[in-house]
Design a protein that fits this description.
heterodimer, A: 227 residues, alpha/beta, six-stranded mixed sheet, 10 strands, 37% helix, B: 309 residues, two-stranded antiparallel sheet, 9 helices, rod-shaped
Chain lengths: 227, 309
């Protein structure tokens, strides 16, 4: 499903050029759930952003279902995101405060120019499936951390993407909420979603089929590093 | 007779024809004043539209008489008159009701029961020097008239400005009119125009500087929302468009409000003023948007996504 070859990315901080990714190779098959670990600043989020089409690599290639993503323009990447990617943010409150739950979840559909009636129907159906339909009219400030993250997951799922990218989705949650969210991720994976989670948390990594670590700008499969 | 109420002696003028003419109480009213004041005709007929025009140097001018004349004249009678050194026949069209009155700056109510009411004559183009001389006198004495309107002074002034432009005769002023609250404001504005200009320039510069600063601050505070839009399928260009629209609304609404206010108060706004206001609004938008655009161009998405509030 995903194939990344020799991906490189660097940033200029002040006058200094910092190489973040120095030739990442990665393959993820459909239906897999993988974790990417690494210390802060290792480049985990940078890799995730490139996979999401939010950022572009300096060198290397990225194929998604045989389609070369690394050559796409910014507008094409936005379209690619809308069609294929669900993104769960690393944030204490991952919702837009000035929009209620319905509006937050509906946002990707609005960018996709769906009809109002279809948006309403799809949001209500999804919130029911996730068991949070009772939150539909609530404002983000009225939600607990776990509820907010569930709504964020609903927003990531609303376009029915095949690939879910999660950037430390449980980073700011209490233990119980973390368990809930991980159970939900597991459930989504069992329903066929491919999931890539960037995490520091060993508990999160433990529910994944495979874990990778980013070290010195390279992506190493944990089995390989152990051996 | 003129001066009777004030105890002045009757004034008698000797005409070129050798006849003596007494100065009588008379008022001239134009069509608008005739419609505005409560002048009702008791007997005979009122003035028609044609009575105000004297295209063919008509020697007969229709008049209405105050009710005190009822015992002296009949409808259809003709009175010899000497008007501005020219002989006319005044033909009685009717008699005015006793309660009818007009106003003047000195007397708010002039009851017309002892007056001759003559329609202000609008003459055709003069053909002789004598006609020209007469019409100059005629129009000159009409200048010394009074304008009555239920509308505000500002509205009248606006209409006078239009009339000045149309007649290409700028030497006209309204004097002695009651000043409204708004009139006081405008007088104060006229007196302090230089200060106001300076304040306007300072406000313009302040707006041009503060709006981008406020917007930049707002963008910084909205990184989280921006990244949610991005992961939901939005693009940087779309986000910039939202900010651009916000700036336009922020500047456009006050500018539109000012224009509407000016149109509402003055009824006419010079194209130069409209252009100036629109120009200021566009300048503020451009000065606000350019730094924001540069900020957006330099926005590193990855750092945006990793940023925590």
């Amino acid at each position: 499903m995903i194939e990344v070859k020799a991906l490189e990315k660097s940033y200029t901080i002040g006058k200094k050029k910092v190489d973040i990714l120095k030739g990442i190779d990665l393959e993820v098959n459909r239906g897999e759930m993988i974790a990417i670990k690494g210390r802060s600043g290792a480049g985990k989020s940078t890799l995730l952003n490139i996979l999401a089409g939010l950022d572009q690599a300096d060198r290397g290639v990225y194929w998604y279902d045989g389609e070369r993503i690394s050559d796409k323009t910014l507008n094409e990447l936005a379209h690619f995101r809308r069609q294929n990617i669900g993104f769960i943010l690393q944030h204490y409150h991952p919702l837009i405060d000035s929009k209620n739950v319905f509006e937050n979840v509906a946002l990707p559909l609005q960018y996709g120019n769906y009809a109002k009636k279809e948006i309403e129907q799809r949001v209500e159906e999804l919130l029911s499936t996730l068991g949070i339909n009772h939150l539909i009219d609530r404002w983000p400030e009225m939600l607990s951390g776990g509820e907010a993250q569930r709504v964020a997951i609903a927003r990531a799922l609303i376009q029915q993407p095949e690939l879910i990218l999660a950037d430390e989705p449980t980073g700011s949650l209490d233990d119980e909420s973390e368990k809930d969210i991980l159970a939900l991720c597991k459930q989504l994976n069992e329903h066929g979603k491919t999931i890539i989670i960037v995490t520091h948390d060993q508990q999160v990594a433990s529910i994944c089929h495979q874990t990778y670590s980013i070290q010195n700008g390279k992506c190493i499969r944990d089995d390989d590093s152990a051996s | 007779m003129e001066g009777y109420e004030e105890g002045r002696p009757s004034s008698i003028t000797k005409g070129e024809d050798g006849k003596s003419y007494h100065t009588v109480k008379a008022v001239q009213v134009n069509k608008q004043a005739f419609d505005l004041f409560p002048i009702t005709v008791n007997k005979g007929t009122s003035f028609g539209q044609d009575d105000f025009f004297n295209d063919h140097d008509r020697n007969i001018i229709p008049i209405l008489l105050g009710l005190d004349y009822e015992d002296v004249y009949e409808v259809g009678d003709e009175i010899e008159a000497h008007y501005l050194f020219k002989n006319y026949k005044l033909k009685v069209k009717g008699f005015i009701d006793a309660q009818s009155f007009v106003s003047s700056p000195n007397e708010p109510e002039i009851y017309l029961d002892r007056y001759i009411v003559m329609p202000v004559q609008q003459f055709g183009k003069p053909t002789t020097e004598e006609d020209t001389d007469f019409q100059e006198k005629h129009y000159f004495q009409i200048i010394n008239g009074a304008i009555y309107s239920a509308k505000e002074r500002d509205t009248i002034e606006a209409k006078l400005e239009k009339a000045k432009a149309f007649a290409q005769f700028p030497h006209m002023h309204i004097i002695g009119s009651p000043i409204t609250m708004l009139g006081h404001v405008f007088t104060a504005i006229e007196e302090s125009i230089h200060w106001l200009l300076m304040i306007s320039v300072i406000l313009f510069i302040t707006s041009a500087l503060s709006i981008p600063m406020v917007m930049r601050g707002k963008i910084r505070n909205n990184y989280k929302n921006m990244m949610i839009h991005l992961i939901s399928g939005g693009t940087i260009r779309q986000l910039f468009r939202y900010v651009f629209i916000e700036v336009i609304v922020l500047v456009g609404i006050p500018a539109a409000f000012i224009l509407l206010l000016l149109f509402g108060v003055f009824q006419t706004v010079l194209p130069l003023h409209t252009l100036l206001i629109v120009g200021c609004a566009v300048s503020i938008v451009i000065l606000s948007v350019v730094p924001i655009y540069i900020q957006f161009r330099r926005l590193p998405i990855t750092s945006l996504l990793k940023r925590k509030e």
